User: What shape does this take?
Amino acid sequence: MKSKTSLALLLGITIVVTSTSAFGDSGAVYTMTNAAAGNAVLVFNRSVEGQLTPAGVFPTGGLGTGGGLGNQGALAMDERKGFLFVVNTGSNSISVFRIREGDLQLVDVVASHGSRPISLTVNRKTLYVLNNGGAGGGSDTIAGFKIRNDGHLAPIIAGLPLSAPSVGPAQIGFDHEGEILLVTEKTTNRLDLFTVDDDGIAHGPRVVPSAGETPFGFAFGKRGQVFVSEAFGGAANAGAMSSYETEDDALETIAAAVNDKQTAPCWVVVTNDGRFAYTTNTGSGTVSGYRIAFDGSLQLLNVNGQTAITGNGSSPIDAALSNDSRFLFVLTPGSQNIQGFGVSPDGALIPVSNAPGIPPSANGLVSR
Assistant: This one.
């Protein structure tokens, strides 16, 4: 506990130490500091009412960048196996933590087999990382790893290219079956589709034009559907979301660029029942909700696109749903906090919590 407390003081974060049993009572929320002097994971206990309580600061053994990453998915979690995975963009590595009651245990730090890792995705015993090497004069690539029972990572493939060496990638993600990997390319307005064989090896990509400009974050829903946010270059009130259907190595548009009337939607989550999708609008300080029809078509929950307001200057980025989809948490580094909302049966969002003390460099969010 001494090391956690001293690091917290260094970062200027107030930590409330709770009992060990409180850590696992209902759930937890995780983000990373992305600090250039030393990256660390911030842990918050979640109560049954959605309240967040700081529970510790855990060094990753790697470095952040101290700034924005233009990404979704800097953290990934395998809740069934009890592992948390974190990118260290400043030191080109990935950290693995074992999730324990009252603690996180660092079990491995490995090279990302590329430069500037920004996004992770996990399915069963396989992890893939998206490396944004093009931002530093290199190439954007993906790499895959097998996850051993003890949490250690073993590389299986590296250096798989995207559609071009520098494409401004934002996210990599598995579909629910672990048979498809999707990558968004912001600067080329393209989507990369990889197929994954039984050994976890990715093949491709098949490159598909995005239905809208600046595809950013995405989330898979039911029936092979995937929902992608489109920032439209940050143009005022031009943001949108598109839905697609995946089949083998194909991607068919269901609903193209459904406008949310907000600015710079970038991060996407979908509820477990597949009924609602939410995107955070960085430029507007809002969250937009969509109702998802059985066929994957989209309808705004609110006429003005404002399902929740995070506030002017809050710059909402990453979002995460609790494992039961009862709560939505939004990382707002502009106001240096994590905001929590209850998810109503009709998709409305009700403010329930606010966890302050988040550094402005914070990035990534997962919840259980």
Observations:
- Residues 1-24 have pLDDT under 50 and may be disordered.
